[in-house]
Amino acid sequence: MQYKFRYEPVKLGSATCSETPGYGSEKGCAMVKNFEDLQQVGKENVDIALKSMGALSKSGQAIAVEVADYSKKAFEDGTAALEKLFGVKSLEKAIEVQNDYAKTAYEGFVAEASKLGSLYTDFAKEAYKPFETLMAKAK
Fold first, then answer.
1. Burial 111-137 (b: 16+ CB within 10 A, else e)
2. DSSP assignment, residue 2?
3. What is the value of pTM for the model shown?
4. What is the separation of C-alpha 83 from the centre of its chain, rounded to a whole number of angstroms?
5. Which pLDDT score, from 0 to 100, does residue 52 have?
């Protein structure tokens, strides 16, 4: 028993199933249509992933810049407080300088933590936004 295989190119562009030679059957038409649907879903998923990664990159850069700015400011404030501490003559003045520095450092940290929290929240919203349309289609 010999098998003969025949190769005929399938046009997936503008040709319909009935216009493609050898593929006019219902089963062949459904297979081509399913393949085109699969390609479309794959393309949409890649687009969504790229949009989400773009949000990741943008938000990551904003967070990195904010952390770098805060680190620089905290270092400068600490250095200034240490210089003041070296210049004091009495123990009471040293305690006052230390208390002032601790208070401003704590307030700065709380403000920065709040700012970073809002940046991370915005990041999560932006990264999820492309997937909202996908979830809406699934329902």
1. ebeeeeeebeeebeebbeebeeeeeee
2. -
3. 0.62
4. 42
5. 81
